[in-house]
Write a structure and sequence with these properties.
256 residues; alpha/beta; Metallo-beta-lactamase, Chain A; 7-stranded mixed beta sheet; 14 strands; globular
């Protein structure tokens, strides 16, 4: 069975181009420089999984023609990763049931507060139907007897959650990896990590930090995501990278 990851979005919280910006990247005609908010669609062992539902979620589902969704995994509570969750409703209608959503305690509390209408005892007819699964870094997410491993990340003052699917790890919105989590990445062949820009940032990896992390983990291939317009064009970034590190772009599909 073929496993694959499709990059639904590879941009920052503002997306690329940024509203009102006329920089070289935002003015680029290269489709690789058009970045929706960061998200990924993973087909793994027969399961259809999305990581993060930002404000572009509806369009991302339509653009890729996704008609089945078994689970939604959330990394953290920032708007660009959860605010599109209302748009899971068509999957509820098509699949005639609740969607399994996996999130840590902080994200779960945010969902309960910000989407209170979803979790009422008698919700409004047509509201999203969610089975909320609260997980920790020590949880194992079981989907059809296959195990997804959560990976705890630090993201400034926020805790984010990455996920390992077999030999692939997807780590977005990360600044550092706690020492106790390194063992979860042993033996991975494909790594996806955020790499915001060249300059240092308080809650994201910059280029220097990302390359150091890659050298430490030693995957066969790495893809950079969550890219700012301040980083440069896709072509310019590529010229800065070693052969086994690639700039992800929207709609790129990779096998693992």
């Amino acid at each position: 069975m073929n496993n694959s990851l499709t990059f639904l979005g590879t941009g920052t919280s503002q997306g690329v181009p940024v509203i009102g910006c006329t920089c070289e990247v935002c003015s680029s005609s290269d489709h690789k420089d058009k970045r929706l908010r960061t998200s990924a669609f993973i087909q793994w062992n027969g399961q259809h999984i999305v990581v993060d539902s930002g404000p572009d979620f509806r369009y991302q589902m339509l653009r890729e023609g996704i008609q089945k969704l078994d689970a939604l995994l959330l990394s953290h509570e920032h708007n660009d990763h959860i605010i599109g969750i209302d748009d899971i409703r068509p999957f509820n209608f098509m699949q005639k049931g609740k969607l399994n959503v996996f999130a840590n305690e902080t994200v779960s509390k945010n969902l309960l507060a910000r989407f209170a209408y979803v979790f009422e005892e008698n919700p409004y007819p047509g509201a999203p139907q969610i089975h909320l699964n609260t997980i920790t870094k020590d949880s194992i997410v079981q989907l059809d007897q296959h195990s997804i491993i959560p990976v705890q990340l630090t993201h400034g003052i926020t805790e984010s959650m990455g996920y390992r699917f077999g030999n692939l790890a997807y780590l977005t919105d990360m600044k550092t990896l706690p020492q106790h989590e390194y063992s979860k990445l042993e033996g991975i062949e494909t790594l996806v990590i955020n790499c915001l820009r060249k300059e240092a940032h308080f809650s994201h990896l910059n280029l220097e930090e990302a390359l150091e992390f890659i050298e430490e983990i030693k995957p066969q291939q790495t893809y950079l995501t969550h890219i700012s317009h301040r980083f440069g064009t896709s072509q310019a970034i590529t010229e800065l990278l070693p052969p086994n590190v690639h700039v992800a772009y929207d709609r790129l599909k990779i096998a693992f």
